[in-house]
Structures are given as C-alpha cells and as structure tokens.
Design goal:
single chain; 291 residues; alpha/beta; two-stranded parallel sheet; globular; binds NADP nicotinamide-adenine-dinucleotide phosphate
C-alpha cells in the first residue's frame, strides 16, 4: 500500500455522497489545506461539487479524477444491495494512484448482541436485510484491491441532525424498552478520527476495519430526557415499546430489534484517538449551542 505521505495541500479528496457526514468531512479537510470535491445526485451551485448518480448512470467527467489521492465514500448500498461507487467506477478508481480509500459503513453488520459489547474482531452477524447488503458492499470494497479502510458507524448525530430537530418538528416518540441501548457518534468525531488516522498513518498499524463510536452507549430515553432538560421543557410521558410498536414504520421498528454496545477500544485505546464528544451529553450540548 502506498502510505508515503502525511496530509498536506497536495492531497485531493474525492468525496462520494455529500450528505451529513460527507459534507462535514469535506469542510474539515479543506480547513487543513487539502482539496475536497464532493458528489451529489443532482446539479447544484457549489463549484466544488460534481454529479454522480448510480441510479441513472450519471458518472463524473474523467477530468474530476485528475490528481486525486484520496477517496471517501459515504453512499449506502443501492436498492439492489450493490455499492453505487464500485458498481459504476471500480475500474476507474483502480486505474488511479490512490493513497487511501475510506468507506463509511454501519455497525448494523454486527446484528443483535442483546446488549453485549461488540468489536471489530467479532464475526459480523447481520440480522436486517439492509445489513446483509451492507456486509456484501464491505466485502466488495475489501476485495477491490484498493487501499481501503472501512469505518463502522452507529447512529450519527450533530448540529442540524439530532434529537433537538425531532423535538422541534414534533416527530419525537418517547419509547421505553427495558435494557435497550443504542450506540452513537457525533459527526465531528467521524471526520476527526479519520483525519487523525490519515495524519498518523506512517506510525500507526493499519487496520482495514475500525469502529467509530462514543464511549457511552445508552438508552434512547436518557438522550431524549437530556434534550428536554437543556430546552427547559418537560419530556412527554414514555410509551412502552410493546404499545408503540404498532404505530412505528417498519424501518423504525427494525432499529428497536437490535441491541448492542459498540466498542471503540481499537480506535481510542490501541490507536490513541481522543474523542471530541465522549458521550451524548457533551455532544448534544454542542448541538444545542449550534442550533
Ligand atoms: N445516518 C446514520 O445514523 C448512519 C449510521 C450508520 C451508518 N450510516 C451510513 O454512513 C454513510 C453516511 O451517512 P450519512 O447519514 O452522512 O449519509 P446521508 O446524509 O444520508 O448522505 C448520503 C449521500 O449518498 C448520496 N447517494 C445516495 N444514493 C446514491 C446513489 N445511488 N448514487 C449517488 N449518490 C447517492 C446522497 O446524494 P444526495 O446528496 O444527492 O442526496 C447523499 O449525498 C451512509 O452510508 C449511511 O448509510 C449512517
């Protein structure tokens, strides 16, 4: 693998999928002097953006790839379970001299551990159909021959996308389910952890799969209560999951079918990354102040 140089202004990042995490990463990496250009499915006014849409076969002009050193894909599997980037551009990516390729995946590939901790050395055991698709996409990236690093992420939140928005838009449901926990990660820690690994790639052992999660998986109710407290409002009375279930969409129900604590020991102990937002309280305070 060509891991010769640390991050500098000669690096050009191509970021596929400029959604919540992709956009945050692009902004952060630009602040370090790197070039970052991002994809979206339709044309927009951003001069650093290009169109890529695997659904209708729109691929970037070949000039976009000139001088690219790093790629980050933030695009989920398509409806058929295929990876949109590899499905359309694998040969093109393989023809470039890339230093690094990152792929944002999900901790859903671990399946239901009934609340137990799960780490990168545990065998994936997907439960949901979408997680089987995700694991297949991970495999395709791992077998692509590209210098790939996969980041498994739990629920992503940050300014503009957190429980505060759900409360404000009246989409909040306060559901109680005994012993149920969720792991989560602040969007700034996704970018920061990746940048930390890239900056230190010459001194740190390279791991192809890394979880990025905070230190404190906890129940959804704790998070919601904390938001209501910060807002100075009273939290609505919780509804038992068994009663709430019938009104939940299939996708919302599916999130409650899995219960796991995602370990960040590889990232934070072995590799030495220091989280900016160690837990939901610190992270949500940041969202509260930036809303
Ligand atoms: N949200 C979570 O809590 C969470 C948790 C764990 C893992 N993940 C995974 O982590 C990654 C990043 O998550 P995110 O929430 O930051 O993503 P996001 O905001 O939903 O953005 C996804 C991006 O993918 C693009 N995209 C989707 N389908 C595409 C296709 N067929 N062709 C081209 N572009 C396509 C979208 O394009 P447009 O900009 O044009 O819409 C968008 O820029 C995703 O793979 C997601 O599934 C998310």
């Amino acid at each position: 693998m060509n891991f010769a140089s640390a991050l500098n202004n000669k690096n050009k990042f191509l970021i596929f999928g400029c959604g919540f995490s992709g956009n945050f990463f692009a902004k952060t990496i630009r602040q370090l002097g790197c070039t970052a250009i991002t994809s979206s499915r339709s044309l927009n006014k951003d001069p650093n953006s290009f169109v890529f849409n695997s659904e209708n076969g729109i691929v970037p002009n070949k000039k976009i790839f000139d001088g690219v050193t790093h790629i980050l894909s933030c695009i989920p599997p398509d409806k058929n379970g295929k990876d949109p980037v590899l499905g359309s551009l694998k040969d093109k990516l393989k023809s470039l001299s890339l230093e690094w390729v990152g792929y944002l995946s999900t901790t859903g590939v671990y399946g239901n551990t009934k609340g137990d901790w799960v780490s990168e050395t545990d065998q994936p055991n997907p439960f949901q159909n979408r997680s089987h698709k995700r694991l297949n996409c991970e495999k395709e990236w791992l077998e692509s021959g590209l210098p790939i690093q996969i980041f498994r992420l739990p629920g992503i939140y940050g300014p503009g996308r957190s429980t505060f928005e759900a409360i404000r838009n009246k989409k909040i449901r306060v559901i109680a389910k005994k012993n149920q926990v969720f792991s989560r990660i602040h969007v700034a820690d996704i970018s920061n952890a990746i940048i930390y690994l890239l900056k230190n790639k010459n001194s740190l052992k390279f791991h192809r799969i890394i979880n990025i999660a905070d230190d404190e998986p906890c129940s959804q109710i704790e998070v919601i209560r904390y938001c209501y407290d910060l807002l100075g409002l009273e939290m609505p009375k919780p509804i038992l999951f068994e009663d709430a279930k019938k009104e939940l969409s299939p996708i919302a129900q599916s999130f409650w079918m899995e219960n796991r604590r995602v370990s960040n020991k590889l990232l934070c102990e072995t590799l030495g990354y220091k989280l900016i937002y160690k837990n939901y309280k610190i992270g949500l305070k940041n969202c509260f102040l930036n809303n």
